[in-house]
UniProtKB/TrEMBL annotation:
Residues 2-97 form the NIPSNAP domain. Pfam families: NIPSNAP (PF07978). It comes from Neobittarella massiliensis. SUPFAM superfamilies: Dimeric alpha+beta barrel (SSF54909). It comes from the Bacteria. This is NIPSNAP family protein.
Amino acid sequence: MYELRIYHINPGKLDLVVQRFEQHTFHIFERLGIQVVDFWVDCSGDDTLYYIVKWADKAEMDEKWGLFVDDAEWKAAYADSEKDGETVHTIENHLMERLAGAPQNWA
C-alpha cells in the first residue's frame, strides 16, 4: 500500500517546510521505519510539496504515524518552524495500491 501526501503550503513558507524535512523529518522517518519512496516540490510555482510513503498495510501506517506525531524530536522541530506562523494550510493524503500489471522498472 502506498500513501500519496500533498502539502499545500502557505505563501513564502515552502523553503521553511523543505528545510524542516531535510534537517529533521527525513531522519525521524528513517529512525521510525517510515519508508519514503520519493519526494517532490511543484515546478509550476505553486507552494506544494508531494511525497509517497510505502506501507505494508493500514495498521502499519496508523501505528507509525502515531509514533511520528508523538515523537519529541518532531514536536520540537515542528514548534520551532511554526513560531512565525503556520507553514502548511492543507494536507491531503490518498491511499493507493500499485497496479499488479505495471512494469517494475519505472522510475
